[in-house]
Amino acid sequence: MNFIKRGFLGITRKKGKSLILLAVIFILGNLISGAFSIQQATGNVESSIKERLGTAATVEMDHEKINALSEEELGVMEFEDIGVDLIKQIGELSYVKYFDYSMSTYLGSESIESYQGEGMEDEVAMTGPSMDYRLKGINYAPVIDFEEQKGKLVDGRVFTQEEVDNGTSVAIISKKLADKNNLHVGDTFTLTNAVYTYDEETGEEELATSRDVVLEIIGLFEPQSIKEDQGESSDGGMFDWMDIEYQNTVYVPNAIIASENKYNMEEYMKTDAEFAAAMEGEEQTFEYYTPLFVLNNREDSEAFEEEVTPLLPEFYTVINASDQYDSIAGPIESMSNLSKYVLIAAVIATVLITGLVVLLFLRDRKRELGIYLSLGERRGRVVGQILIEVMVVAVIGITLSLFSGNLLAGQVSDTLMKADSNMSDEGVMYYSEIQQTNLTTEDVLDSYEVNLNSSYILGFYGIGLLTILISTVIPLIYIVRLNPKKILM
Amino acid sequence: MILEAKDLNYYYQDGEQRRYILKDTSVSFEKGKFYAILGQSGSGKTTLLSLLSALDSPQSGTVSFNEEDIKKIGYEKYRRNNVGIIFQSYNLIPTFTAVENVLVPMSITENEIPEDSKTVAYNLLDFIGIGKSKADRFVNKLSGGEQQRVAIARALATNVELILADEPTGNLDEEMEQEIIDIFKKLAHEHEKCVIVVTHSNEIALQSDQAFHLRKGVLSSYE
After folding, report:
1. DSSP letters spanning A266-305
2. What is the ipTM of this complex?
3. Which superkingdom is the protein from (chain A) (predicted)?
4. Which whole-number Å values give the CA distances from A211 to A190, A221, B127, in the listed order?
5. CB neighbours of B187 closer than 8 A, spacing ≥ 6?
6. Which residue of A199, A420, A453, B80 shows the fewest CB atoms closer than 10 Å?
7. Are B157 and B85 within 8 A, CB to CB?
8. In chain B, whose CA is at the least distance from the CA of A382?
9. Residue A200 exposure: Cα atoms within 13 Å on the Cβ side
10. Taking Cα atoms as reference points, which of B205, B207, B151, B208 lies closest to residue B40?
């Protein structure tokens, strides 16, 4: 009849009280379990969405800071460029897995047809100058978009560093564009760099001059992430547009774009004397690079930002892909906050209510406890007996509430998210060059899932049992202060 | 000498005045004897018993068990291993059966207890007059006399030499009182226990081997 056995007998011989305690722990456990489930689920969403947002970072003009300037300040302000040297310096940081810097431009073509989407072949072509092909410059020869699974090379090869450095006229195009024009690896195709003049009176554009840009196809790619997302989202139109844009992207070395931009600008100045006069004396550069840094780990984002920010010229800022989580995770964030407060309140309520219930039960058993002490039982073992009685009931109550609280959390969070997403501005999509996937609030809500996993189970048992343990400390103080003589004589 | 109290003082502080319950009380007890301490209500006899059983401690003076100060032994340890206490209101655990109540001190004591403690408990109860069928009943289903027997069995369960009883027959009728007295006499004379009973019953005093009278905190021999 040691204290452990006495503890178990205490549970079975006082069924009524054990059931009351079980009911209290079960009800409060549901609150804790529910709130904890939501906390876990929102935490999982955050990490998975940030994972999908990627580990990319870039350096951009700080538009918020610029918008805060007065017109006078803007008038005299000279903005520095991000030079290649600085990009390389940042790229050398230990957080960076690999980096690239690129320019882009749009060119048209008279010899090939652009991809216009599935089932759009019969559509009437747009009138006016067509600039359907987006040339994306490359300095990192293996192409970051392929390394980061935005696209996948399905035929041919990527660039060599020599081709990139020399600006060789080679290109990687999408398989669909190639198929449409019966092009293969090793073929050449021609784009047109057309210079247009604009008649302000008529509003018409007129071709001033043009030159051919002949490129040899060295590889074919297929889009990856956009294609995947397309099937998951209801916002098909937007993704169609993005898909078309990407299918018509032509990867080329940066030097080709610099050369075409220079040609275009010089020819345009020949047609517009006023513009040419305005540009006279200005240092002419045709190299405006957008850097892209892919970090080793998502956790490095903050450290990377902290280290890079002091290196940047004024009015530039670091943008991390995961920064966009805050703007698309509104409903999840509000639910996470709510569940945090509910969890804290539930833990406090459990400590107080369970503590009070146990204390009341112990007051009824004062004489019994006095008997143990009069028989010379160690106070620690009397405490142990009570702990066993409470904790065994607590384990049962917590186990039951583990499942019911989880179910409850699923129902409550569904309702909350529906209400919240109805209130948020639907249809807004967030896209950035640094994103590898193009996520919407809907994607965030889709990835929210309340489920029973080992970390949730362990976490909930930890919180639940610790809370009950703390709530039993109050009665323990009561036991320690008991005087057997006063109770029994 | 198994138990000795020397110069015990126990008082309550009432403002600046001390109200003595026990004043310079000294007394000693031997094994194999049945003692009675008589006194009226409020005479301090229960206080004396609580000091002898280490349920309380005196402001001054010592209680020695086998010539060792019980303070040195440790009050809790002394209660656990050296003394069996019987209360007027039995103080049994109502949610346990009679035999379970007897088993409780057996699991607490550090004294050597036979491995088959349950059989020992049944035998003890049988010795006291509680048969197997009653031993398996919850104690609140037993009569007052039977409950007191269970309490005596519990006091004996740890094989101690010293039994202290506080008004053990206070709630019992005359017939039952005699049965309990007989048990105490048997324990003292046949089993070499030292049995000290605090009571207001002259009957117990008359049948005891030695009786003391406690009046206004002062102990004297009972004539």
Report:
1. HHHHHH-HHHHHHHTTSPP-----EEEEEES-GGGHHHHH
2. 0.91
3. Bacteria
4. 10, 27, 121
5. B34, B156, B163, B193, B195
6. A199
7. no
8. B108
9. 1
10. B205
Size of interface A-B (CB pairs under 8 A): 66
**B-proximal residues of A, 367-396, CB under 8 Å:** 367-368, 370-378
Give the C-alpha separation, B151 to B53, whole Å: 15
Assess contact for B32 and B192: CB atoms under 8 A.
yes
Q: Is residue A15 less than 8 Å (CB to CB) from chain B?
A: no
Kindly report the number of other CB atoms within 10 A of residue A369's CB atom.
Answer: 22
pTM of the model: 0.65
Residue B186 has pLDDT above 80, yes or no: yes
Residues of chain B positioned with their CB less than 8 A from the CB of A5:
107
Residue A122 in tokens: 């019969």
For residue A452, give both structure tokens. Answer: 């029973």
DSSP labels, B63-102 = EEETTEEHHHH-HHHHHHHTEEEE-TT----TTSBHHHHH
Amino acid at B124: L
CB A250 within 8 A of CB A133: yes
Q: Which two tokens stand for residue A54?
A: 């990627």
How far, in Å, CA of A453 to CA of A426, rounded? 32
Distance CA B75, CA B53 (A): 8
Gyration radius of chain A over CA positions: 34
Evaluate whether B201 touches B172 at the Cβ level (below 8 Å). Answer: no
Chain B neighbors of A377, CB-CB under 8 A: 76, 80, 108
| Residue ranges covered by each domain of chain A | 3-51+329-488, 104-287
Q: What is the pLDDT of residues B94-139, one digit of tens each?
A: 999 999 999 999 999 988 888 888 898 998 898 888 888 889 999 9
Interface of B with A in 41-70 (CB under 8 A): 46, 49-50, 53, 55-56
Closest CA to A446 of A47, A51, A45: A45
Chain centroid offset of residue A103 CA: 26
> Are A321 and A436 contacting, i.e. CB atoms less than 8 angstroms apart?
yes
